[in-house]
Amino acid sequence: MNSSEYFEMLQRGLDGALDVAKAARSRGLDPTTDVEVPLAVDLAERVEKLIGIPGIAVRIREMEAEGLAERKRLLPLVLILQKGGLERASQRSSLWKTPSAHRLPF
């Protein structure tokens, strides 16, 4: 199996799992009928989708390219957010609604 076939197999498995989750949620037994799994191509995109701040993934990728260790990326990102990276209070509150926000992986 080559890498293309492997990723196609993974995508089919993901699509199947999402179909099952959507069917289960459609029964109305959960607080929401949406499946809240934000799909992303990398960790930077996942963080951006989780905290809801457009453009933060680009900065995370830049820091990766600069060779900045994961733990050392946190402070610069917090400073970006503090200095106006968050334009609206609703965005600020979305950061803390994120599951395990205190353990964000950057």
Tell me the Rg in angstroms: 17 Å
Number of domains: 2
User: What spatial form do the alpha-carbon principal axes imply?
Assistant: flat
Give the integer mean of the pLDDT values: 79
Question: How many H/I helices?
Answer: 5
Q: Largest sheet, if any? A: none
> Unreliable segments (pLDDT under 50, ≥5 consecutive)?
88-93, 96-102
> What percent of residues are in strands?
under 5%
List keywords for this structure.
2 domains, mainly alpha, flat, 106 residues
Description:
With 106 residues, the protein is mostly helical. The protein folds into two domains: 1-37; 39-106, no CATH class. The chain is built from five helices and no strands. It has helices at residues 3-25, 43-51, 56-65, 70-85, 89-97. Helix 2 (43-51) packs antiparallel against helix 3. The longest helix has 23 residues, at 3-25. The model is unreliable at 88-93 and 96-102 (pLDDT under 50).
Q: Can you give me a brief rundown of this structure?
A:
With 106 residues, the chain is mainly α. It has helices spanning 3-25, 43-51, 56-65, 70-85, 89-97. The longest helix has 23 residues, at 3-25.
